[in-house]
Amino acid sequence: MSERERELQRSYSRREFLKLTGGIGVGGLVLGSPTAWAQEASKTDSPAWTPKVQTNIQTALAVPRTEFSLPGLFPGRVVEIRDPRLQREGKTDPGRIRKDFHEGILRLTGKKPSEAFKLFFSKNDTVGIKVNPVGAGQISTHTELVDSVIQWLREGGLSGQQIVIWDRFEPMMKDAGFTAARFPGVRIEALQTIDESAAEGKSNDNSRWLGKDGHHLSEDRFDRDIFYWADVEAPQDLPYLNQHVFNGKESYFGKLITKGLTKIINLPAFKNTGNGISMATKNLGYGSICNTGRLHKPLFFHVNTEVLAFPCLRDKVVLNIVDGIKGQYDGGPDAVPKFIYDLNTLFFSTDPFAVDAVCHQSLLEKRLAMGVKVNRHPMFSEYLRYAQRLGLGIGEVSQIKHVLLG
């Protein structure tokens, strides 16, 4: 890679599977999909971004911080590596991905990967790798990038049983190639199962997800003691329950997150959600809890900040690498092939809000270049500045140290 390093301050499918958090049942669309909601929200003329409902955010904020609490060891620092050689003749180059991964870790931390490992992890840690499987094989997290992360962790002294590739939905992980066969010796875990046939209205047999006691078979995978509470009602029908496990006012965190993992590496894809983005914070905010469909309309981007304030994420997420080998500039968060392009970029940060701010600007520039009508309403990025007010990250773009390579 030709290196020109500069530090700057910048302003800035699985069959479209249920629209991920929308939920399609026998009666049709249960809730508006993230895409539909984002399109509707883009029309708003609301003068200010304000939370619309009460939540239990203060409960999370009251818990003392640790040395690893967000925004992490390098607040507001984002390393962006652009490398057209990440793909050759339409195929990803694993060797090049590994080289750029090592370079990104070095430039972020100032240390070689072997030494940087010691900054984030001990040999007693259990590390979760949070992937994004939406749009399998199109815009999902690349398995080759996950390979590089696993190799780094193994070289640092972790065993396969101390490494967990995870996401919320079991079937989507399989579709995107996150299986035991593809990653031998490493744990593969999902927060919940779901019956796609029932969710899509193709079957009336609910036995594959609903127990004889009337409870979702995945209930035990969620921690009933740790939850994001929001004063928002959830639908009470079976299709919603199938997808969301619970339908009260609590969105429970997965036990894997609260009890199973000690550190988390976040590997989101690079894509839009309407005029906003679906990257580092959304991959965690909506991927770590259940019962999310009810939150989209009143609290969509708000969730990206507040869920990350809870210690089970705030104190465990030590690294974020946005997978921009491919990018999608419109139609997201579901995969729409005509909007997917070769971005050939990786973004590194300990601060998920800073990296989202950098990526938001990058995506905005791409949308403008492609002639997409852009709504610059602050509601699409105010959650980043809200995070800064809460001490979770650097969302003010003038305070972000952006290192660009390539």
What coarse outline follows from CA principal-axis ratios?
globular
Assign the structural class, choosing from mainly alpha, mainly beta, alpha/beta, alpha+beta, or little secondary structure.
alpha/beta
Low-confidence stretches: 1-32, 44-48
Q: Describe the largest sheet.
A: 11 strands, mixed
Distance between the termini: 6 Å
Beta content comes to 15-25%
Helix percentage: 25-40%
Average pLDDT taken over every residue = 89
Number of strands: 17
Radius of gyration: 20 Å
Q: What is the helix tally?
A: 14
Question: Could you say how many structural domains there are in total?
Answer: 1
Topology (SSEs and partners):
Elements: E1 6-8, E2 24-25, E3 28-29, H1 34-41, H2 57-61, E4 77-82, E5 87-88, E6 91-92, H3 94-109, H4 113-120, E7 127-131, H5 143-155, E8 163-169, H6 170-175, E9 187-192, H7 196-199, E10 222-229, H8 238-244, E11 250-254, H9 255-260, E12 263-267, E13 269-273, E14 276-277, H10 280-285, H11 296-306, H12 311-314, E15 317-328, E16 340-349, H13 352-369, H14 382-389, E17 401-405
Parallel strand pairs: 4-17, 7-8, 7-12, 8-9, 12-15, 13-15
Antiparallel strand pairs: 1-17, 2-3, 4-16, 5-6, 10-11, 13-14, 15-16
Helix pairs in contact: 3-5, 11-14
